[in-house]
Amino acid sequence: MTGVNLFLLIVLLVKSVICLEREMTVNIEARREDCFFQSAKAGDTIDFEYQVIDGGHGDLDITFHLVDPTGRILVADYKKTENNHRVDAGMNGDYKFCFDNSFSSYNTKTVFFEMIVEGDDNSEWDDENIDMQGLRAEDVYEMKVQDIQQVITNVRNHLNKVRHIQDLLKSIEARDRNVVEENFFKVNTFSMVQICTMLVVGCIQVVMVRSLFDDNSKVHKIWKNLNRR
Where are the transmembrane segments (predicted)? Predict the structure, then answer.
């Protein structure tokens, strides 16, 4: 079998599995709901995973729901930090997935999500679409089409899993960094308030003590009147 013919066969095998993968990081403003749309065919599988990586100065949570083309809600999450769903598309059309931050009054939420739409397309496997010119009968049988297809599919699935794990680790790292920065801001703010309070209290104590030994001060006169009573 020539190298060109083998390459042609591998290309046709790869086309037998259709996969659409998208990932985005979006900001959902307070008191708003943002929706996105994705087309899918009946029989496709929709994998969806999201994670709130920044909650402003509030909690890391968001409300999510997935709706089919008829308007029926397939998945609904209320105030979740992260979640993943796997849904089988029951019909052709545009599927809507929405992130709802209407319960938040001031805080903007940053959400990372990844969506994978998988489907099989067997139309490429019709004999009339495959150029068999230059192949002998024994070559066709020796190619072991199913074995090659299985190997390529396994490699593709493993690569997708590796990429998915890398994206997930990246989003977790971003979320942890935002949490650390938020805690750093809170600690610094609380520390400054404590320092200012201590300075004010110290100044008041100094003024009060000095006033007790000053005969002309109002505090000293009030203290003497209290002692006389």
Answer: 192-213
* Burial (CB count <10 Å: 0-12, 13-18, 19+), residue 104: buried
Whole domain around residue 148: which residue ranges?
3-179
The span from the CA of 98 to the CA of 107, in Å, is: 18
Q: Find, among 110, 103, 108, 111, the residue nearest to 57 by Cα.
A: 108
Residue 210 lies in a domain: no
Q: In one letter, which amino acid is 130?
A: I
**What total number of domains does the chain contain?**
1
Residue in the block written with tokens 């959400």: 111
pLDDT at 24 over 80: yes
pLDDT tens by residue, 140-192:
555 556 666 667 777 777 777 777 777 777 777 777 777 788 788 888 888 99
- The tokens 């030994």 sit on which residue? 213
Q: What CATH number has the domain bearing residue 166?
A: 2.60.120.380
Domain presence at residue 155? yes
**For residue 71, how many other CB atoms are within 10 A of its CB?**
7
Q: Can you point out the beta strands (E) in the chain?
A: 17-28, 33-40, 45-54, 62-67, 73-80, 82-88, 93-100, 109-120
Q: What amino acid occupies position 202?
A: G
Q: Which amino acid, 168?
A: L
Is residue 106 in a domain? Answer: yes
User: Is residue 218, in this structure, part of any structural domain at all?
Assistant: no
pTM, two decimals, is 0.56
